[in-house]
Amino acid sequence: RGLMPSSPHVGLRRDVSRTPRKNGTENLLKSGWLRALYYKAKRSVRPNSGHAHSVNALTMLQSQPPQGDSKGSVSSLWTRMASSIGPTWILVGMLTWSVLNWQAQYWLHTPAALEQMREQVPMQVYDRSTFLFLTALVMDVLNILFERQTTKLDYVLLPAFVKGMATTSNMVVRFGTPTVAFTTLGRPFMVQRYVCWAHTTPTLLMLVRLISSSISDTQFFTAVAWDETMLLTGVLALVTTGWLQGTPIGCHTPKAWLAHMGHGACTLAVG
Fold this sequence. Notes:
transmembrane, 2 domains, two-stranded antiparallel ribbon, 13 helices, membrane, Rhopdopsin 7-helix transmembrane proteins, Arc/bac/fun_rhodopsins, mainly alpha
């Protein structure tokens, strides 16, 4: 009798506490936040045909498909290229580069200046820079193949265009006939570099515009316009000496007629 509990209710309460519950999930969910999540999910499910469902919160969370893994959201490379601004930017840049290079050759190029530059600067100087820019260009082109699952394809195309412009300019200087002119002091300077900078700097500004969330389109176009003005006045400042050289009578060569169209900007650049 001493081994038996004094009250049947006490023994029953003790036996129930030792008996495992029917719902094993409630035994596992002993953590406060996990238990709260479980009961919240259980209350959120409506009864079906008058019968309540016992819902496991972990099973419900695991059954949801992860976002962004849908096969339908993955577009092909050509679809990404069609919706990107990079291909259009590159095609327009190639066209304007060809036109500016042709115009610079016609108006400013002097064969004697090119010959003097070849004598002063060995051609091997451009081998290293050409190799570096070409290697970087190949890496960017290969990266394009792995950008099919992101909308940031322009972040690869625009830098590839910058390196492509630099590679093209170096190869023209190394193996071709770059545009070289004489300054008013008789020193050769390479106009080919200015043609390259007229395309690479706006491309970098476009890349910054895409990354930034505070730069407006007006600010972007204003920055590009001032950059192009700076390059134009820089060339004019090298081939002229000020206001007098901005007139057709004061031009030291017939090719300096270009300065007549921008003598006002030239005066501001020379100061």
